[in-house]
Structures are given as structure tokens and as C-alpha cells.
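hey can u check if this looks right to u? its 300 residues, i copy pasted from the old doc so theres a chance i mangled smth
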Amino acid sequence: MTNFRAIAPTILAVALTLSGCAAVTSTPAASPGDTPPTDMSAESPTTSFDTSAVVGDIAWADSMTVTVDEGSAEVIANGIPNHEREEHYAVPGGGGAVPDASTAQVVDDPTQEQDYDFTITTTPTYVDEVTAASLGAIGIMISGSVLFNPYEGDGTTVAMANNFSVTANDGTAVWFVDSCTGHPTPLSGEYHYHGLSSCVASEVDTESEPSHIIGLALDGFPIYGANDIDGNPVEVSTLDDCNGITSPTPEFPDGIYHYVLPGTSDETSSMRCFHGEVDSSQMRSMPPMTGMPGIGGMGG
């Protein structure tokens, strides 16, 4: 595993928690951070789409298995991203949902293999009422790891604006979030993102060119990077409150509703809700939230 420098704290940060499962729903949740606004700035003129011809051809990591059959795709992954990670991470030291440099400790990379087995529709349906994107896995990325919503464990603190570093005993800076915009949860070792990762997008995208699919949301709609079909940055003001928009993409030149990760550091960094019908049972349960005293590392 290769160690490399993480980017500045004003650019990104990631929560270390997941949320519990729920029944299928198409109504917003009521708790802070889980409830998206209801007015949408981008509307979908079409309600149903067919992604079956595209999903199997997405540039999935070699470690993943994707099988498309009869209106759905089974996506199997071990959660280990196909890009480099840090050798050490700053993790919560006192069980707090929102860690900072004063409470975090330095540990060896706790990333562990997961047993993801998502069943995602290939006929996603756009609905007017949205479903809140809970803390935890809300989409699977082409790297083999998952996407979380923008918030940390308290459901209100925007993760991408909360990055920090801890100075280890040898004087090096150890970051909460790495330069790929991700990190693992401390106990379950679930590596995840809260926004656009250049390490993921660079696998399929070229600067100033159109963004390609970098993941699938659990409602079946594709997830894209920051650029539109002309290779220009998507204006955040054109996205709805779920970070969605209907427009042409390289894979869907006639247009499709899709989610955009615009590379921002505020709450628009990731999806806050689903605008498609979603089986919330696909979402992962929240692991115990605590630090890991005694785990080997460089010391905080």
C-alpha cells in the first residue's frame, strides 16, 4: 500500500458512520441532515428510463461482478477501492460523531473487505416525491467502493468542509480524508466517498471533456462527475435538491435523469435524496460509532 499526501482541509472531509435500513419509501425523512428540501430546480420530463444496455458496459473495477438480467443489475463488490489509499488515517478517538484534530487519533489504515451485493433496477423511475439519502451507502462507484451523502455522523455537519490532520509522533500530517476524497469507517473498515473523487473520475474522464458514468445510485439512476455533455462544468444552480438533472450524456445522448457530483465542498458535494423509486433495504446498517484505542499506528 502506497502512502500519499491528502489535500487541504477546506476541500474535503468524510463522516465515519452509516445509517440503518428502512422499508421501501418515497417520502422524505424527518431528521436533520436526512431531510432534503422539497422544491426542485431541475424537472424530469420523462418518468421511466432503461439503462440495461449501458450498465453492463460501465467501466467497473476488475474486482467487481455486475450481472444484468430481467430489469435489474446485481452488483457484487468487496469495497476495496482500485486506487491507492493512505497507510494511516485520523479517526475519532472518543466516539464522537464529528471528530476533529483535538479528539482524533492516528491508526493504521483500517480498511476491510465488505460483502456488497446490491440489486439495482435497470428501469429507474423518476418520482416527484423524494426519498432522503440516509447516512451510509447510497450508491456504488466504479472503483468498487460506495458513496455516502454529504453529512457526517450528526446528520448536519457537511463532511467535505470538515477535513483536518493530526500530527503523528514522527511529525508527519495524517489526514481524516485522503486525496481520493475517501476514507474508511474506524470499526467496520468501510471505505467510502462523500463527493467527487478525482481518483475515480480519472479512470473514465479527461479534463474539459464530458463526464462519464462513475457509479450507480441505489434507485438505478447513474452518477456522473462534474462536466456536462459539452465538457463544461455543470452549474450547481441547474441541479435539483438531490443533485439531479435531466440532460444528454455520452452514454445517453437523448438525455436521462442522473446525479452529478460537482466537486463542491458544501452540501451539494453529494446526493441528499433520491428522485427515483428506491428500495431502502439495499442501504447498509450503521456500525457502532467509536474510536479504536490500542490499534497500531504512528501515534497522535
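The chain has a mean pLDDT of 82.
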